Amino acid sequence: MAAALPPSLLLTLTFLSINIFPSAPAAACHDTCGSTQVKFPFGTGPGCGSPLFSPYITCASNGTADQLFLKTHSAATYPITSISYDTSTLTLAPSSMSSCSAMHPATTSFSLDWTSPFQLTSTTFLLLSCHPSLSLSSPLCDPSFDYLCASIYTCPAVTSLGLPLFPPSNSCCVYSPANLDGNGKLDLKAMQCGAYASVVSLGDTPTDPSRWVYGVALKFSYGGALDNNLVTTKCSGCESSGGVCGFSEPGNGFLCVCKGGYNTSFDCSPAYNQNQDYLFDSASAYPFFFLSWFVWSSILAGLFGVPFWLVLF
Predict the structure, then answer these.
(1) Cα–Cα dist 248/255, whole Å
(2) Where are the transmembrane segments (predicted)?
């Protein structure tokens, strides 16, 4: 009868089985969320996309369909309406934002996490229903864009802000170039304004606010050599083979999530052996083989009753 494994060895094997092998993503990763194509560095849930972006991007229901959202530390979530992977930009539609068709007092400030991989870009903020002293004296306001204030104040929706039709433009301020305060906020209360509109494009008729493209444009960057390496090597191969890029937890090791219901550390090509998962990943190969050697040495020592160091050497 085979010798029983010592309790210490059983404890070692249990520990290693829990900690050596990284877990797969908590849920399947997808290459779309609603009608939006999802590619690296973004993901549709935990363990999907880049570990740098995963805390900020999620796919959830907007009440009628699935949609990508950007999350912040303040628990604010902003719907993502478009992504350009060529220019590394995305557009948000904050619920607090006004437009020509619908204006409302902003009860919350727009905010971003300073530590996130996103920065404001190509967005013109129009501060509405402001104290007149702001537009007259504040260095925040760019008087060369006053025509934008006059244009948006032709929208009938201004009455929702408690303003009359065609109100004086001195209660409006074009905040350009836009910036956020030290807390990452567009603090309307501190600016003495009641609402804001944000515009990413004036369209072909700059004086017609009904044809402007409203939203907040953000630039995103991969933020490190690790992500850039994944894009140019493993991740591009994964996506080309029909997989979705993800990462294992803990350790953030690269995973290619395949539609066949399995994960690999390379891609989803038919020639790939699914049982090779994790074994040949450049970030984990050496620890894995060292620990495998250690485990088998421990087993042999326990079975044959020889000192552990004799098995090693």
Answers:
(1) 6
(2) 288-312
Total-model pTM: 0.75
Q: Give ∠ CA 162-166-171 in degrees, rounded to 5.
A: 60
Token readout for 68 is 């990508």
Q: CA angle at residue 196 from 191 to 201, to 5 degrees?
A: 130
Let me know: does 9 contact 20? Beta carbons within 8 Å. Answer: no
Q: How far apart are CA 17 and CA 252, in angstroms?
A: 17
Type of residue at 226:
L
Whether residue 111 contacts residue 180, with contact meaning beta carbons closer than 8 Å, is answered with: yes
One-letter amino acid at 219 equals K
For residue 251, give every residue at least 6 positions away whose Cβ sits within 8 Å of its Cβ, in sequence order, or none.
22, 283, 284
Q: What is the pLDDT of residues 100-156, one digit of tens each?
A: 999 999 988 899 988 899 999 889 999 999 988 776 667 788 888 999 999 999 999
Q: How far apart are CA 312 and CA 68, in angstroms?
A: 52
Tell me the two tokens of residue 147.
């025509």
State how far the Cα of 183 lies from the Cα of 181, in Å rounded to an integer.
5
In angstroms, the CA 123 to CA 218 distance is 8
Taken as a whole, the chain contains a residue count of 313
d(CA 4, CA 42): 49
* pLDDT tens track for 274-309: 544 433 333 433 444 344 445 445 554 555 555 544
Q: If we measure between CA atoms, which residue out of 278, 225, 288 comes closest to residue 254? A: 278
d(CA 313, CA 306): 12
**Which residue in 275, 250, 218, 239 sits closest to 43, CA to CA?**
239
Q: How far apart are CA 89 and CA 205, in angstroms?
A: 23
Which single residue is written with the structure tokens 């092998």?
A: 21
List Cβ neighbours of 113 (8 Å cut-off, separation of 6 or more).
Answer: 56, 72, 73, 184
